[in-house]
From TrEMBL:
This is Uncharacterized protein. One of its GO terms (molecular function) is metal ion binding. Keywords: Metal-binding, Zinc. InterPro entries: Baculoviral_IAP, BIR_rpt. Pfam families: BIR (PF00653). It comes from Leptidea sinapis. It comes from the Eukaryota. Signal peptide: none annotated.
Amino acid sequence: MWRSSSQTKGRYYSTIQVDIPPKPWFTNLTFGKATTSTLIRMRLGHASIPLHLARLNLLPSDICECGNDVGDFNHIFFACPRYDRSAFFSSLLYIKIPFPTSISVLLSNININVYRILAEDERVKTFKYWPYNDNNKCNIRNMAEAGFYSVATGDNDVDAVKCFLCGKELDGWEPEDDPWAEHKSHAAYCAFVQLNKREDDLLLPEYLSIILQYMKNEIRNNQEIATQLIDKKAKEVWRKIHKLRK
Ligand SMILES: [Zn+2]
Ligand SMILES: [Zn+2]
């Protein structure tokens, strides 16, 4: 046994344990350290929830404050009467998550795109035509940190950007413009502006609230597009009827 193992010393654990991928699930993501560790803690259940706190003997029981059930993530997100989750549920339906579902399903690799759109480093990658350099206040890193990604299509709109959360579009940037200040003055209602924190400084509930807000905004935008399409169709039909009557 030992003789044979010495010959294969140093090989990847994954080659003997095939169920474990050689690289972790977050390899291709460029989240900040805090975000990645938040997601890992949620996936493992190592968080400030009754179930985990009781395991560490910090709470006498793992039952949720509501008294209905064990306080794990699934209870908190899907059943606990202490929270209103209507927006959360409609968001899940919107991104076509089949019910019943659970936190482990939501945090599995299938839904990784939900997180990708929120990542600062992913926004950095969108700035291909940006006219300002690192010495300018509105450099690419500061723009991405303030929630902006580039929507430039070519030479005519090199400095067109959009907020990932509120959708506000801005252009006409000056080198000394402060991205956070501009975001605030043009879209003070933006939930990201109101938190006023870098991605790595967000706490878990804040991070979740941003995910939810993003989903809600997406739903609203799609509803607006749908309403416009229906209006247009209705007008066409009305015109046809009008012609027939003449
Ligand atoms: Zn509860
Ligand atoms: Zn915004």
